[in-house]
């Protein structure tokens, strides 16, 4: 390992954290705190590119501040520098820098911008720690810091009740899910006697390799550990049933949404599973659990995305669906390292086009005064770079060639097709069908979004009234972060830096397929044709539904839009579960107080009565009769002893 590589990786993690602290200390100096945040993001990107250049064909272990002395358990706290970590670090750094640059303009009138920028820097440090981590403890630290930062970013406009509720909801759901994540790490580390990821993998796989894999297949402890890990990953990544917090997270400012959705917290689960994939490869149960969760989530979220009345919530559901697409690749066992490469390839491409879409929508929302489709209707037309950026982002999300989304999506489809003849054939068929359906649904909601953003409404009176009703409800529930954009929107032109940021992301979305080569992306011809046919059918169907300027979702009736906006009522399930848990807790308290504690309280009460009675008898003056009885008993006892002797 070269000294340059070690220093590069260490600075890559430490520098954003230092920038976060400096930003908080300089929060009264807005311009300087912004400069620190943007400068740290730029240097982090340079360091990530340098790591990419340094790790060609090799993997290095990087020390931090030494192992922790914890008895027999080894906690080396090392980091790992290889081509995989370098590629993902580049993606994270690109998105982080883009968010910081864009936020300078987007939150120009926000008095709490310095705090926001510092939180973004800390968020980047936490994600980069997860990416570079070679130790489960470091992974856990980065994992939990990201959860805390997401709480702060979602609730950035804390004066708004809906933002506070969304932040609390995200925090509680992910914290509950993280209980399993921590327990899974405890089992893995306890069994291996070390938290170093390489040691953990070698222990539980018998030293790796297909020849020993069969020996550990079905290990109950390994299965329990991996399923517990998946519960935490499902919480962070928004897989069913933990998915409902992510759309509500749109209460945060749009740059925060780009950061959370594109390349940090929700994508971190995919990266952790990819790092530990050799363990999943030898445990069929955990792969089935992962595959089922991924298949259900990708279709469910894509269905919800189609009829959303707010473009940010549509993008949120698309994130859920695309994260599930990434996770599905990890449910397969292909050549060593191939499944993780395909999953991380889609993670990289998703980071590019999803950050592009969020920032472009943020730009458009400043011009239109909101993120509801009725407010944005036709506003992208004639916007030059913004128009083309939205077109490229939506096309890449839909999976059109030759954009980056096409190559990474086809790589996942290839993994499913390649597994049809293997031992996981049933799971492969399930996921392949789910993937094809998701491809069609994704093309459908992307086409609808494009039609609404670029065409004026020309519907009949009934549809116009319905859209006006949607506008009123969308205004009441407008994302908190975009409320700062209301007012004289046209009087606040976009800065060159913000516009250039969006344009650069658009370019990366076009040419990003070349950057996927190091991850080994492969494409199957048959599945490419099938997916393009699904895209074509969905595109044609939505065009027919949206003829004459109609909103295609309006063809499904007003109930469909209402159900979609309410997440098919899944939030009510959360409320019902919360009430049930609260009722159970109250019942336990009552049983503990009125039943379990009744016995010791009763005993104490009776003892008190007996004590008071004894005290009263002890203090009372003895009567002559009582003295006679006592004296008689004593005399009889003495006489008996005398006669006995």
Write down the overall geometry.
elongated
The computed structural class is: mainly alpha
Q: pLDDT average, as an integer? A: 85
Strand order of the largest sheet: 1-4
In oligomeric terms, what are we looking at? single chain
Query: What distance separates the N and C termini?
Result: 99 Å
Share of helix among residues?
Answer: over 70%
Total of helices: 28
The portion of residues forming beta strands comes to: under 5%
Give the biggest sheet. 2 strands, antiparallel
**Poorly predicted ranges (pLDDT <50, ≥5 residues)?**
208-216, 471-478, 483-491
Rg, Å, rounded: 31 Å
Question: How many β-strand stretches?
Answer: 4
Provide structural commentary.
This protein is mostly helical and 645 residues long. 74% of the residues lie in helices and 2% in strands. The chain contains 28 helices and four strands. The protein has helices at residues 3-25, 30-54, 83-106, 113-132, 136-154, 161-192, 197-204, 210-216, 220-237, 245-248, 254-262, 265-275, 277-281, 284-306, 311-329, 338-368, 373-376, 385-398, 404-418, 425-454, 461-476, 480-483, 496-511, 525-545, 558-565, 570-596, 598-619, 624-644, and strands at residues 60-62, 68-70, 73-75, 79-81. A two-stranded antiparallel ribbon has the order 1-4. A hairpin with a 2-residue loop joins strand 2 and strand 3 (73-75). The longest helix has 32 residues, at 161-192. The N and C termini lie far apart (99 Å).
């Amino acid at each position: 390992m070269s000294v340059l590589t070690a220093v590069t990786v260490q600075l890559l993690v430490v520098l954003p954290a230092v920038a976060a602290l400096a930003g908080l200390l300089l929060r009264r100096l807005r311009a300087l705190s912004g400069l620190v945040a943007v400068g740290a993001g730029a240097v982090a990107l340079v360091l990530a590119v340098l790591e990419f250049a340094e790790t060609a064909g090799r993997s290095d272990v990087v020390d931090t501040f030494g192992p922790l002395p914890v008895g027999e358990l080894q906690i080396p706290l090392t980091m790992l520098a290889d081509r995989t970590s370098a590629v993902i670090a580049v993606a994270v750094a690109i998105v982080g820098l883009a968010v910081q640059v864009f936020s300078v303009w987007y939150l120009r009138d926000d008095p709490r911008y310095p705090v926001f920028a510092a939180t973004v820097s800390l968020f980047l440090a936490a994600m980069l720690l997860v990416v570079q981590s070679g130790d489960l403890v470091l992974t856990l630290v980065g994992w939990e810091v990201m959860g805390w930062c997401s709480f702060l970013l979602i609730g950035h406009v804390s004066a708004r009740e809906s933002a506070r509720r969304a932040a609390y909801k995200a925090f509680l759901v992910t914290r509950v899910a993280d209980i399993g994540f921590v327990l899974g790490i405890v089992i893995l580390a306890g069994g291996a006697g070390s938290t170093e990821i390489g040691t953990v993998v070698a222990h539980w796989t018998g030293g790796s390799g297909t020849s020993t894999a069969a020996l550990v297949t079905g290990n109950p402890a390994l299965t329990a550990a991996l399923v517990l890990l998946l519960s935490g990953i499902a919480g962070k990544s928004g897989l069913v049933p933990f998915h409902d917090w992510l759309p509500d997270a749109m209460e945060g400012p749009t740059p925060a949404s780009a950061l959370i959705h594109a390349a940090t917290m929700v994508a971190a689960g995919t990266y952790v599973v990819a790092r530990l994939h050799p363990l999943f490869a030898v445990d069929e149960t955990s792969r089935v659990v992962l595959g089922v969760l991924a298949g259900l989530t990708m279709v469910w979220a894509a269905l919800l995305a189609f009829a959303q009345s707010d473009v940010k919530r549509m993008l949120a559901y698309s994130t859920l669906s695309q994260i599930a697409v990434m996770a599905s690749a990890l449910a397969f066992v292909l050549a060593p390292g191939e499944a993780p490469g395909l999953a991380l390839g889609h993670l990289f491409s998703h980071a590019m086009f999803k950050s592009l879409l969020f920032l472009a929508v943020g730009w458009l929302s400043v011009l239109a005064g909101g993120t509801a489709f009725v407010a944005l209707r036709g506003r992208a037309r004639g916007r030059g770079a913004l128009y083309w950026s939205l077109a490229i982002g939506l096309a890449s999300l839909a999976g059109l060639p030759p954009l980056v989304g096409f190559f990474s999506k086809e790589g996942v489809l290839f993994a499913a097709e390649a597994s049809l003849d293997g031992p996981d054939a049933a799971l492969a068929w399930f996921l392949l069908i789910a993937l094809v359906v998701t491809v069609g649904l994704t093309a459908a909601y992307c086409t609808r979004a494009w039609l609404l953003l670029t065409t004026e409404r020309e519907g009949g009176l009934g549809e116009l009234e319905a859209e006006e009703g949607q506008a009123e409800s969308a205004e009441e529930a407008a994302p908190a972060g975009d409320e700062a954009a209301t007012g004289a929107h046209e009087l606040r032109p976009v800065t060159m830096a913000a516009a250039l940021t969006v344009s650069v992301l658009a370019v990366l979305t076009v040419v990003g397929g070349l950057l996927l080569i190091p991850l080994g992306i492969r494409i199957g011809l048959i599945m490419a044709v099938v997916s393009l046919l699904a895209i074509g059918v969905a595109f044609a169907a939505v065009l027919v539904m949206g003829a004459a300027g109609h909103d295609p979702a309006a063809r499904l009736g007003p109930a469909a839009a209402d159900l979609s906006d309410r997440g098919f009522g899944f939030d009510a399930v959360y409320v019902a579960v919360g009430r049930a848990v609260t009722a159970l807790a109250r019942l336990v308290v009552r049983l503990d107080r009125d039943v379990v504690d009744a016995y010791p309280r009763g005993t104490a009460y009776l003892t008190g009565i007996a004590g008071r009675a004894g005290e009263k008898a002890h203090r009372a003056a003895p009567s002559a009769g009582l003295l006679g009885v006592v004296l008689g008993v004593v005399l009889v006892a003495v006489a008996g002893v005398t006669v006995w002797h």
